[in-house]
User: Which sequence fits this backbone?
């Protein structure tokens, strides 16, 4: 269902969208945020004219498309005769805006209509396309009947706050300007004969509890091989694909968690994912070997203070179990079961870090002790990445070493200078 | 705090495996989890084989990031054990310590040290000199004598 819309996710705007990739709203700053009042759409916003959201009537995309079809047909038929009928080309109907006094001034409304064109604002109403169908259809009929009454009796109470009366108002203004009853009827008919893909699948059938079997009036979904539920909609290919992808992803994560559950840290001898402190329930993966640690144990071993004489390179940088030297530790929520998975975790972590600015490099103001091996981003203020030319020095034995910044003091320090001997 | 949790884990492990490894007996102080006593059997085919040696283990607060302090309580004639204080010269108890070692594995390492004396870094110079000069018979008889004198009575 996670078809990306072109409306900016409001949680993403605050940097706190938990849905991540599966969010149905856009996570791109290029897309506009929706500023349409949802209560106004339902016909009752208690803030009225003071509402900070825009009071614009956004047509339901299905109603809009049906209307567009009807209007197109009617204009092509009566283009010569009906001179007074103006047809909105894009399907959004300015005439459907409320004519309520003062709530939406015409200038404001007309200015914001292009911004909230039906395609952009569709996710507001399309989040559950199947279930909303009935509501839409009945709403359409409701407006139809009320407009029918309106013609006969001619009385409208604009003070009444019930939704149906609001519908009357909408339909009144709409009917005045744009629609004939025939057209409304046509819209309702088009909404009736629906695309079977919009039909929701049987909710009981999803878990296999539907007793009606083939006699069930609802569609029955196909079996998802991963989750074992009959939840694949037979007619929505995109949704099926999405479900299969997400399902497989979840299953993989669950399996990884299951394996990780029993892994013990060799330092504290506890199960890493059962540690009392929530923050410590993380693995530390060594680049050189496959021994499991919790991140806090392996970090305190590598970074902690050690008695003098301990060799940093072989003992402390080495794995406590196999002594294989690792140059870095990767934190991970799950343990891996294959080298590919390990590489995947490591690459994912590196990729994440490479998008963050290195605090030692400090946008060119500082120097990073890790140099080119640093996982973080080395970029200047203007976004330009740091370019490093490595200097290779040929050693006497033919091997090449990479030179760091050399100072004179380094050489003096290396000299075996004994003042007693010279003096 | 981490050291306490880990020592409790080791204590449980020791209780569970009691009797499986007859060469090593680890006993924890009733009142202080940081003080342990170990009884180790001398390895076979060495002059120590008839003796049972008592080790005093003092676990520091930062354990397992720093090694436990282990010393012989029972007198022993060995090049890498101080004759008077019982201090042990063993790299894994000093510079080559790893947090993956447990008290059990430390005891096993001490047994291995008894079987393989390292004469080149002696704490007991007399014993080291005997070995370095190639007097294996002299070393063996001295070690056997002290084992019988000090360790055999401990059984």
Assistant:
């Amino acid at each position: 269902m996670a078809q990306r819309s072109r409306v900016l996710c409001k949680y993403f705007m605050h940097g706190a969208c938990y849905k991540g990739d599966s969010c149905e709203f856009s996570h791109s700053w290029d897309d506009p945020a929706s500023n349409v009042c949802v209560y106004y759409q339902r016909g009752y916003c208690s803030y009225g004219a003071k509402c900070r959201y825009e009071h614009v009537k956004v047509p339901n995309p299905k109603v809009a498309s049906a209307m567009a079809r009807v209007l197109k047909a009617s204009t092509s038929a009566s283009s010569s005769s009906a001179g007074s009928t103006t047809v909105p080309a894009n399907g959004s109907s300015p005439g459907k805006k409320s004519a309520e006094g003062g709530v939406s001034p015409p200038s404001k409304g007309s200015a914001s209509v292009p911004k909230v064109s039906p395609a952009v604002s569709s996710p507001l109403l399309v989040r559950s396309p199947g279930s909303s169908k009935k509501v839409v259809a009945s709403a359409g009929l409701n407006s139809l009947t009320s407009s029918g009454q309106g013609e006969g009796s001619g009385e409208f109470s604009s003070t009444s706050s019930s939704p149906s009366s609001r519908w009357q108002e909408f339909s009144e203004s709409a009917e005045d300007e744009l629609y004939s009853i025939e057209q409304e009827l046509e819209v309702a008919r088009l909404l009736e004969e629906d695309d079977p893909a919009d039909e929701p699948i049987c909710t009981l059938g999803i878990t296999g509890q539907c007793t009606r079997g083939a006699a069930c009036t609802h569609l029955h979904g196909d079996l998802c091989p991963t989750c074992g539920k009959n939840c694949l909609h037979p007619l929505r290919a995109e949704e099926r694909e999405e479900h299969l992808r997400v399902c497989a992803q979840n299953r993989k994560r669950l399996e990884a968690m299951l394996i990780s559950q029993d892994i013990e840290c060799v330092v504290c001898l506890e199960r890493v994912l059962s540690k009392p402190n929530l923050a410590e329930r993380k693995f530390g993966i060594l680049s050189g070997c496959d021994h499991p640690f919790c991140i806090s144990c392996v970090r305190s071993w590598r970074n902690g203070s050690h008695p003098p004489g301990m060799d940093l390179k072989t003992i402390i940088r080495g794995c406590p179990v196999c002594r294989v030297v690792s140059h870095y530790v990767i934190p991970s929520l799950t343990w891996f079961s294959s080298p590919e998975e390990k590489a995947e975790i490591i690459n994912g972590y590196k990729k994440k870090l490479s998008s963050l600015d290195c605090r030692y490099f400090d946008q060119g103001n500082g120097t990073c002790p890790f140099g080119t091996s640093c996982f973080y981003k080395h970029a200047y203020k203007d976004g330009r990445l740091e370019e490093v030319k490595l200097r290779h020095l040929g050693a006497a034995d033919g091997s090449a070493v990479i030179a760091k910044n050399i100072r004179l003091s380094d050489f003096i320090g290396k000299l075996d200078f004994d003042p007693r001997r010279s003096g | 705090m981490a050291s306490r949790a880990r020592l409790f884990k080791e204590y449980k492990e020791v209780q569970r495996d009691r009797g499986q490894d007859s060469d090593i007996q680890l006993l924890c102080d009733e009142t202080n989890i940081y003080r342990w006593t170990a009884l180790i059997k001398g390895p076979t085919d060495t002059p120590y084989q008839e003796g049972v040696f008592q080790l005093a283990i003092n676990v520091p607060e930062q354990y397992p990031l720093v090694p436990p302090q282990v010393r012989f309580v029972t007198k022993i004639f060995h090049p890498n054990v101080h004759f008077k204080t019982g201090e042990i010269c063993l790299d894994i108890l000093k510079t080559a310590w790893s947090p993956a070692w447990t008290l059990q594995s430390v005891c096993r390492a001490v047994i291995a040290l008894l079987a393989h004396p390292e004469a080149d870094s002696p704490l007991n110079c007399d014993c080291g000199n005997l070995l370095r000069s190639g007097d294996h018979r002299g070393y063996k008889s001295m070690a056997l004598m002290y084992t019988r004198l000090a360790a055999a009575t401990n059984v």
In short: The radius of gyration of chain A is 33 Å.
